[in-house]
Putative pyridoxal phosphate-dependent acyltransferase
Amino acid sequence: MSRILDEYLASNLQELKENGLYNEINVVEGANGPEITIEGERLVNLSSNNYLGLATNETLKQVAKEAIDSHGVGAGAVRTINGTLDLHVELEETLARFKGTEAAVAFQSGFNCNMAAIQAVMGKEDAILSDELNHASIIDGCKLSRAKIIRVNHSDMADLRQKAKEAVESGQYRKVMYITDGVFSMDGDVAMLPEIVDIAKEFDLITYVDDAHGSGVMGKGAGTVKHFGLEKDIDIQMGTLSKAIGVVGGYIAGSKDLIDYLKVAARPFLFSTSLTPGDTRAITEAVRMLMASTELHDKLWENGNYLKDGLKKLGFEIGNSETPITPCIIGDEKTTQEFSKRLMQEGVYAKSIVFPTVPKGTGRVRNMPTAAHTKEMLDRALEVYEKVGKELDVIS
Ligand code: PMP
């Protein structure tokens, strides 16, 4: 065993713990629904991305079991060898219809999807303009591509226009991309896609939208691009199958040429085993459900608005979220962490998010209501918020 590695790990762990940055992971006992059990305690769960409650949906469980019976538990190989099952083709055709694009390709996770697609499309002779609050998988995908990365101030269209102009007019780059989250998960704000498309047209930028938090939530379920009616204007739409869709995986939707190209150039497609049959079948069914009815989407928004109104009435600062994601801004890091701990002791599971994930002094507890919460659960959560808020002097 390496002594150098032992020392390296021990000193890093100690430093993280001393700085309060070591994350103790809670174990959920049983299913991840609107209520969860941790250490035997039943808690209202406001920390899951299972926005539509589909992770425990009975129909999806049933079709997954049937697919396991007919196709087995694993796909057996990478897509290009013999890991492309009829179930994958059916899923991808369904995803393309869902997104309003010519084609789509599924990956094993949303994270892996960003790593795959950005690297496949962009290279060291290119530049990527990237919103400063983009998700870690976008940041890593950009790094992997070896393109020049130019950070753009968050949703600052003047900054984007200026930096796009400089990059394009410099003549240094073969192509320039702008990449952004569709919905930003820390504050629940939405990318300004119509303005982005105008700037992209002016400078011939490639546009890439990661709609991990928008699919199932925005555009009556079809996502942020559909919400703005920009299916013909965004080159690359990325989404996860792990959040509103409730299962696991990610996808890229776009032109037939884009998808054909990813199937020969995206490394996780070429070198990592494909989604399992059970997952694939459940995802297809979930997407079909979203296309057939907006009932779950509508319930999600009803619950989101109910929680927001309740927290606002109690006197909490809830930011400017445009989606059901509801941050409750507490302030300093210590009080925020204490707040989340007290919520948990009182029966509400909502995680604190503090510096460096968000700016110093803007620590918040992030709430993610879902379609599966009942009014009784949300009322219970609001009662606990009131109690803890008064106790810690966050509200009067
Ligand atoms: N993009 C964004 C914006 C995300 O929030 C996440 C998940 N946190 C991902 C990509 C990665 O998706 P997955 O969890 O499906 O790998």
